[in-house]
Helix-turn-helix domain-containing protein
Amino acid sequence: MTATTETPVTRKAPRPRADALRNRERIVAAAREMFTEFGPEVPLDEIARRAGVGNATVYRNFPDRDALVREVVCSVMDRTVQAAGQALNETGDAFEALERFAHTAADERISALCPMISSTFDQSHPDLEEARRRAESLVAQLMDRAREAGQLRDDVEYGDLMVGVAQLSRPPAGTACMSADRFVHRHLQLFLDGMRAPAPSVLRGSAVTVEDLRR
């Protein structure tokens, strides 16, 4: 009688329950709101309260503050990447696509990412690196397409756009976020108009590149 060897059954890892995924999304959304309003040091208990979940649920999903901050940063970057992709595919006007991305990025409060990425934050984490790479690639495509169409001035780069969006969507010191919001898109459009070709003036300094932002 010939012995047969049974093939081991490979079991798939169980998918997270729908309610668990919803709780995680609520935590990230609440954290994004509160980090924007109060900064990255807001108590995690307060985030749990706003998300409508228990403290244990927060810590089950995010073992420490850095893990939650990283998830918020990645989620904001992922949504801006999605906006860039949609703009790239849905409009034939290259500069209009760039404008749509910039205004969406402002709505996503990318300015709030700057103080959240502190010296103790792991900026080389694989998740963050991947989100950053996707953002840089798609925004570069938007800018290249606008430049090839003769709509974007030649002396600006990725860093110029992202620094401008971040600065213009950050409320001035001592100004309530909500009261400053009504000015953001007006001033952002003024900035974007300044990036159009033909250039009406000569810019000081040199174009800000991706490498400049990482230094």
In short: The chain is about 65% helix and 0% strand. The mean pLDDT is 82. The CA atoms of residues 161 and 213 lie 11 Å apart. The two ends are 70 Å apart (CA to CA).
